Amino acid sequence: MEYIKQFKLIWLLLAFSSVALSADSPLVVIIISGEAKAYKQVTENFMAELHEKRPEVHFIEVNSSEFEKHQSLLKAKSPAMVFALGSDSVRKAKEQLHGQPMLATMILDKKTLQGRSNATAITIDMPIVKQLKWHKRILPAAKRVGILYNPKNNQKWIDQAKKSAGRFGLEIVPVKVETARDITSALKSLNHRVDSILAIPDKVVYSTNTARAVLLFSFRNRIPFIGLSSAWVKAGALYALDWDYLNLGKQSASIALKILGGTKPKKIKVGVPAKSTYQLNLKTAERMKLSIKKELIEAAEKVYE
Question: Quick one: 91 and 176 in the same domain?
Answer without folding.
Answer: no
